[in-house]
């Protein structure tokens, strides 16, 4: 078996097994903690505009989905935004983009400082997105799947008046099942390809990835979005992987049966979303490429960042109106 990018998250068979999310607190109007307090005995924090800060990286698909949902729901003024540098080294995510290298609200130079302020014994990988309480400096949650669903449900009273319903009650059973398949085979599937430390683990992940992409292509051939005529959370989750596919996953992670641009339905669908307000303007291809190619030294030892692919196609007509 070859050397793994993350040995602690690699099975004996060479498969990548993503670590669980350490912090699972939730911001909710149902918290029994007083304003400025928290969490309560059920790890629920009070819903307060301006109190929490979303830490993201423009390169990270898990963090990108939180950034998109926050914007679509009109929560920009309710939840402040901190951005880490795309290069993650042995010290983890750093606030190198800010003046003097410190987040101006939290006052920390590394996101790991917030993790350790919450759990001084934490030894896992520090991840984004992270929702941090600005009053205590503690991490409320790094549970990215639940975080965006909570933005849609628990944060409703702070939504913009014209905010879309990204998680419709009547569609949730079907959506939850679909998003689980997308997570396993696509969102995490590209990482299972890229971080595989054995041929067998890679082959299995590769086949599952493209079988799921083919199934999604068939589904989207008959409808504009995954759940019908309106954008939902499911589309956000698929988009953040698709938008990185040719720039990173096709070459860097060896997901190379096809490029996204060679899958007509998915390519048109991805362009449709990219050209929708709240999506394309949050994409940073430079950060994406610098992170993947410059951070995973077990996969790309030279650290050379490719100049391609051509990004101009993202703004061409998609024909899915």
TrEMBL record:
Keyword entries, A-Z: Oxidoreductase
Annotated region described as Disordered, given as residue ranges: 1-44
Molecular-function annotations in GO: oxidoreductase activity
CDD domains: GST_C_Omega_like
EC number: 1.8.5.-
Pfam families: GST_C_2, GST_N_2
PANTHER family given in the database record: GLUTATHIONE S-TRANSFERASE OMEGA-LIKE 1-RELATED (PTHR32419:SF6), GLUTATHIONYL-HYDROQUINONE REDUCTASE (PTHR32419)
Protein name: Glutathione S-transferase family protein
């Amino acid at each position: 078996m070859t050397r793994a990018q993350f040995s602690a998250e690699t099975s004996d068979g060479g498969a990548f097994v993503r670590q669980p999310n350490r912090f699972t607190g939730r911001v909710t109007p149902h918290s029994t903690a007083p304003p400025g307090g928290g969490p309560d005995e059920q790890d629920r924090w009070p819903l307060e505009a301006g109190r929490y800060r979303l830490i993201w990286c423009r390169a990270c698909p898990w963090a990108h989905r939180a950034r998109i949902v926050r914007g679509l729901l009109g929560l920009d003024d309710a939840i402040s935004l901190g951005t880490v540098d795309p290069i993650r080294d042995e010290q983890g995510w750093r606030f190198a983009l800010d003046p003097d290298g410190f987040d101006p609200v939290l006052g920390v130079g590394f996101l790991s400082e917030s993790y350790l302020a919450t759990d001084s014994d934490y030894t896992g990988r520090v991840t984004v997105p992270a929702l941090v309480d600005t009053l205590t400096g503690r991490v409320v949650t790094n549970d990215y799947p639940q975080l965006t669903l909570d933005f849609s449900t628990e944060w409703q009273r702070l939504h913009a008046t014209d905010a879309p319903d990204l998680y419709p009650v009547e569609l949730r059973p079907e959506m939850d099942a679909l998003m689980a398949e997308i997570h396993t085979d696509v969102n995490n599937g590209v990482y299972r390809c890229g971080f595989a430390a054995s041929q067998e683990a890679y082959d299995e992940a590769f086949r599952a990835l493209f079988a799921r992409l083919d199934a999604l292509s068939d589904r989207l051939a008959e409808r504009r979005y995954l759940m019908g005529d309106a954008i939902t959370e499911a589309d956000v989750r698929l988009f953040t992987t698709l938008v990185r596919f040719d720039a990173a996953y096709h070459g860097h992670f060896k997901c190379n049966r096809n490029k996204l641009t060679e899958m007509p339905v998915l390519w048109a669908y991805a362009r449709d979303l990219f050209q929708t307000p709240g999506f394309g303007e949050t994409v940073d291809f430079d950060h994406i490429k610098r992170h993947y190619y410059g951070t995973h030294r077990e996969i790309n030892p030279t650290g050379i960042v490719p100049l391609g692919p051509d990004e101009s196609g993202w703004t061409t007509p998609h024909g899915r109106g």
